[in-house]
Design a protein that fits this description.
This protein is α/β, with parallel strands linked by helices. Helix content is 34%, strand content 16%. It binds pyridoxal-5'-phosphate.
Length: 360
């Protein structure tokens, strides 16, 4: 068996120890004689698995008791609709900050449900920075302010939490959740798909302040009404049981690494290795402004894009895969989520130096 260094933006690499444990438990979970996939979601075994996953997530995030942790489905793209349906709460519209492709997707969908005020946009700069808070034209009557904490495609990340006064802050954290500590109390709602940093695709996490629940638009599907989901312990309908189980194993793994402060230090070390190399040469270019660079997704370009194919081929031959940039932006992108070991980034950096020496 050979495992590659997988730089995919998502679905992405998972910790090897988690996959091994899941393999060990595949046919018979803890003497139950069943795979987790075969269990009733209302039986005692799975109820315990889900409760433990939720408790570990609450502990890792330090989420206060008045926040509900929901296990949902549909991914962040479904949340782009589910959020306005639940969060408009009688307001005419909401504020959105436009920092790239995923913000644009959120904005487009929200427009179906209410008025969208684009309070700030980084479009003019080619989505290479986060607009400074002083430039945001917020509407004091907005239902919420929506941000994308980490633009997975553009590689632009907030390294600060916006102060938006009394209006709830809503964040799409699909690609940065659990990569470092976050002060949950500064947010009204956090959501994210699991397949970047948490587990298998099919599970969506929602962390929402309790007092915001219960005012969904009448047309909201019951399975997507946060209050209904919360009141039923995320089991209004059958949840993605196996994905919740794997997420629980990942939460265990994260705790064993030392929790979010330790994983942040690890992630900063990995990202610095790559950005230091990118800054040291004109052969490669990092497009994003230094103070907004993502710790999770590192886009870069070869100065001569005719070498792109050779670069990717050489990487693959050395066991480093999925480095091709998103089709919308081209170039390369190294996604280095929690589960990417330091050795993977070291291998990439030494290959990049070798490639430059040969072609530069
Ligand atoms: C991946 C991603 C999405 C899309 O998520 P789906 O699970 O495909 O719905 C949305 N927002 C961000 C920031 C992402 O990284």
């Amino acid at each position: 068996m050979t495992r590659v260094f997988n730089f995919s933006a998502g679905p992405a690499a998972l910790p090897e120890s988690v996959l091994r444990r899941a393999a060990d438990e595949m046919l018979d979970w803890h003497g139950s004689g069943m795979s987790v996939m075969e269990m009733s979601h209302r039986g005692p075994e799975f109820t315990a698995i889900a409760a433990e996953a939720e408790a570990l997530l609450r502990e890792l995030l330090g989420a206060p008791a008045h926040y509900k942790l929901l296990f949902m489905q549909g991914g962040a793209i479904a949340e782009n609709a589910i959020v306005p349906m639940n969060m408009l709460r009688g307001h005419a519209g909401a504020d959105y900050i436009d920092t790239g492709e995923w913000s644009k997707r959120s904005i487009k969908e929200a427009k179906k449900y209410g008025r969208v005020n684009i309070a700030a946009s980084a479009a003019a700069g080619g989505y290479t920075h986060i607009p400074a808070r002083e430039t945001w034209a917020l509407d004091p009557n907005a239902a919420y302010v929506h941000i994308c904490s980490n633009e997975t495609i553009g590689g632009v990340e907030y390294h600060w939490t916006p102060d938006v006064g009394g209006v709830p802050l809503v964040a799409d954290m699909s690609s940065s959740i659990l990569s470092r500590p976050v002060d949950v109390s500064k947010y009204g709602l956090i959501y994210g798909g699991a397949q970047k940093n948490i587990g298998p695709a099919g599970l969506t996490l929602v962390i929402v302040r309790e007092d915001l629940l219960g005012q969904a638009l009448p047309c909201t599907p019951s399975a997507f009404d946060y209050k209904v989901v919360a009141d039923n312990g995320s089991m209004y309908n059958t949840p993605p049981t196996y994905a919740i189980y794997i997420a629980g194993l990942v939460f265990h793994w994260l705790k064993a690494q030392g929790g979010l402060p330790a994983i942040e230090a690890h992630n900063r070390r990995k990202a610095a290795l790559l950005y230091d190399l990118l800054d040291s040469t004109a052969f490669y270019r990092a497009p994003v402004a230094r103070d907004c660079r993502s710790l999770m997704n590192v886009p870069f370009k070869l100065a001569d894009d005719r070498l792109d194919g050779a670069f990717l081929q050489g990487a693959e031959a050395r066991g480093m895969v999925q480095l091709e940039g998103h089709r919308l932006v081209g170039g390369m992108r190294a996604s280095i989520y929690n589960a990417m070991p330091l050795e993977g980034v070291q291998a990439l950096v030494s290959y990049m130096k070798e490639f430059e020496a040969r072609h530069g």
